[in-house]
Amino acid sequence: MNKLFVEHSIGELSARVARGELSAADMAAAALDNIKEGEEYGAWVVSADSALPERLKGTPAAQGLLPHIPIGVKDIYNTTEFPTQMGSALWKDFTPGNDARAVYNLKRQGALVVGKTVTAEFAVHALDKTLNPYDKTKTPGTSSSGSAVAVALGMVPAATGTQTAGSIIRPASFCGVYACKPSFGTIPRTGMLKTTDSLDSLGFFTVFGEDLRRMFDSMKISGLNYPISHAAFSDKARQSKPAGRPWKVAFVRTHTWQSAPEYAKQAIQTFAERLSKEPGFEVFEPELPASMAATHETHATIYDKSLSYYFQHEYSHDEKISLVMKSMIEKGKKISPEAFASALEHQSGMIRDMDAFMSGLDAIICLSTSGEAPPRDVVELPDPALMWTLTHLPVISAPVFLSPGNLPFGLQLVARKYNDYLLFDLLALLKERGLVPAKGSFF
Predict the structure, then answer these.
(1) Catalytic residue among 145, 167, 218, 308
(2) Domain 4-239+419-432 has CATH 3.90.1300.10
(3) Which candidate in 9, 47, 74, 88 is catalytic?
C-alpha cells in the first residue's frame, strides 16, 4: 500500500501541500489506490471513481486545517457526492442531496471526501462486511467499524464515526488506532441519522494521535451562538493544568472490571503504576459516584425505547431488518413512557455527578474495551465506553496495549465535559513521555 498516510501526520501533509510538494490529485490517488488494494477488508460502501485524481489536477492548494486531506465518512452522515444508506437494504441508493453539517465543516477546512465507510445497520449492532485487519475472524467493533479499518490500513489519514454506546471507542480499540468522542453536542448532528436524542455523539479516527485535535477543530461548533461550549473552550484556566500542580489522574476499574480478562487488568494496572512514577503526575484510585453503577441498565432503557420510536417505519418492514434490530425495537415497545422518563432523569443525575467528580481531576484512565476483539459471532463483553457516552464526557482511545494473542486493545482517557483541549494536551504529554505511541499500532 501507499504509505503516505502512515508515514506523515495530517499536519505534515498540510505543510507539504503549502510547499507545493503534494497536490489534491496526489492525495486522492494515494487514497483510492489504498482503498482498491484493501478491498477485501470491506471498509467502504462506496468510494470516488478512479478518474477523480485526473479531475483534480491543477486544483489550487486548498486552505484550512485539512487542505486536500482525504477523509472517509461513516455512512450515516449525509453527503452530496454519495448515497447515504445507513447499513440498511431499506435505504439502498438513498441520495439526500445535502451534506451533514459536520461534513460541510470538514470541506470548509479543505478536506476531500473520498467515500462512505461501512456502518452496522442503522449504526446499532448488526455487524456488516468489514473485517478486522489483525484477524479476519475477529470483530472489527461495532457501528463505526468501516471508518476504524479504513484508518487502520492507512487508506485515509482520518475518518468520521458516531457513538451512541461504544461505537467509536470499541472499533478503535479492536483495530489499533486513535479515536476521539468529544464532549456531547460539540460536533453538530444536523443532516444525519438519529437514534437517540441524549446519547448520539459524533467523533473521528486518526492514524496519528496528534491529529485528533485538528479533526476536532475542523468539525466542531464554534462561536457565540453556542454560549456554553464557547465559554468553556475560551476559558484558558479550564483548558490547561495549573502551573506547578501535578496532573491529577484517576484510575477507575468501573463495575465492568469483572468482565475483563486477567491480561487486560494487568495491562491497565501496570500503565497506572508507571504513570504514577512519572514526574508531575499523581494517580488516584477513587470510587466513582454510586449512580454510575447503573449506567448500562439506564443506557439500555433510553436506547431501546428511542429505537422503538424512531424506527417504527423500518419495523413495519421487519423482513428487511436484522433480528438484533427487531429485538431491540420490540424491547423498546414494552418500556413505558414513565420508565423512559425516569431513565432520562437518571442520566441527568449521572451527568451532574460526573461533572462534580471530574471538577477535582484532570482525567480518568480506564480500559477502552475488555481486552482484545472477540470472534465476529460473539457478543462483546461489557466495557466502560458507554458510561462516558451516557454522561457526555470527552474521551480518547489510544492504541497502547497488545493481548497475549498479539491483538490490540486500547487505553481510554476521559476528561470533564468541555475540557476537550485539556485532554488533547494530556495525550501530547503522554506521547512525549513515551507512554503512548505516536500512531496506530498496526504500522
Answers:
(1) 167
(2) yes
(3) 74
Residues of the chain with pLDDT under 70: none
Known catalytic membership, residue 167: yes
Which of 143, 198, 229, 308 is catalytic? The answer is 143
Taking a C-beta distance cutoff of 8 angstroms, is the pair 68, 106 a contact?
no
Does 327 qualify as catalytic in the annotation? Answer: no
Grid cell 448500562 in the structure block, residue: 296
- SS in 3 state form for the chain? CCCHHHHCCHHHHHHHHHCCCCCHHHHHHHHHHHHHHCHHHCCEEEECCCCHHHHHCCCCCCCCCCCCCEEEEECCECCCCCCCCCCCHHHCCCCCCCCCHHHHHHHHCCCEEEEEECCCHHHCCCCCCCCCCCCCCECCCCCCHHHHHHHHCCCCCEEEEEECCCCCHHHHHHHCCEEEECCCCCCCCCCECCCCCCCCEEEEEECECCHHHHHHHHHCCCCCCCHHHHHHHHCCCCCCCCCCCCEEEEECCCCCHHHCCHHHHHHHHHHHHHHHCCCCEEEECCCCCHHHHHHHHHHHHHHHHHHHHHCHHHHCCHHHCCHHHHHHHHHHHCCCHHHHHHHHHHHHHHHHHHHHHHCCCCEEEEECCCCCCCECCCCCCCCCHHHHHHCCCCEEEEEEEECCCCCEEEEEEECCCCCHHHHHHHHHHHHHCCCCCCECCCC
Q: Quick one: cell of 71?
A: 477523509
pLDDT of residue 419: 98
Catalytic, 368? Answer no
Identify whether the C-beta of residue 10 lies closer than 8 Å to the C-beta of residue 157: yes
Per cent of the chain over pLDDT 90 is 96
Q: In degrees rounded to 5, what are phi and psi of residue 319?
A: -70, -15
pLDDT digits (tens, 9 = 90+) for 238-265: 999 999 999 999 999 999 999 999 999 9
